[in-house]
Each structure stands twice: as structure tokens, then as C-alpha cells.
Amino acid sequence: MSSAPIARIIAHSAPWIVAALMVVDFIHVAPHGLLAMLNANAAPQVAQIVQPAPVMLAEASLPHSP
């Protein structure tokens, strides 16, 4: 029995195997990269939300009328 048919099957399916492995790798690794990007993008926005606005500080320093 010759190994030519087996080699032909492997040669024809190799691109699909590589593509499937790339998809699996992307699904496994991508969430970590996406979370890092989201955290990096969210950090300045969170800092803006946490810091009080100057208008709020000015209103707080005004005397309150009864």
C-alpha cells in the first residue's frame, strides 16, 4: 500500500487545518487582548468620571440660601 493517498489528503487538508488552528488560537487569545484594550481605553474615562467637575466645586463653595 502506497502512502501517496495519505500524503495527498494531508496536503489538501493542511490549509484548512492551519486555518482552524488560527481560529481556535484567536478565540483563545483575543479576549485577553480585547480586555486589555478596553481597560486601557476606559481608564481615562473613569478618571474623568471620578474627578468632580469645576462647576460642581464652585457651586459647593457658594453659600446656600434657606
Provide tags for this entry:
single chain; mainly alpha; 66 residues; 0% strand
Structure description:
By secondary structure, this protein is mainly alpha-helical. The protein has one domain (4-61). Helices cover 83% and strands 0% of the residues. It is built from 2 helices and no strands. It has helices spanning 4-50, 54-61. The longest helix is centred in the middle third of the chain and has 47 residues, at 4-50. It is rod-shaped, with a radius of gyration of 29 Å.
Give the helices and strands, then pairings.
Layout: H1 4-50, H2 54-61
Helical amount among residues, as a percent range? over 70%
Residue share in β-strands: under 5%
On the 0 to 100 scale, the average pLDDT is 69
Largest sheet: none
Low-confidence stretches: none
The global form is rod-shaped
Ends distance: 100 Å
Elements, N to C (H/E): HH
Q: In angstroms, what is the radius of gyration?
A: 29 Å
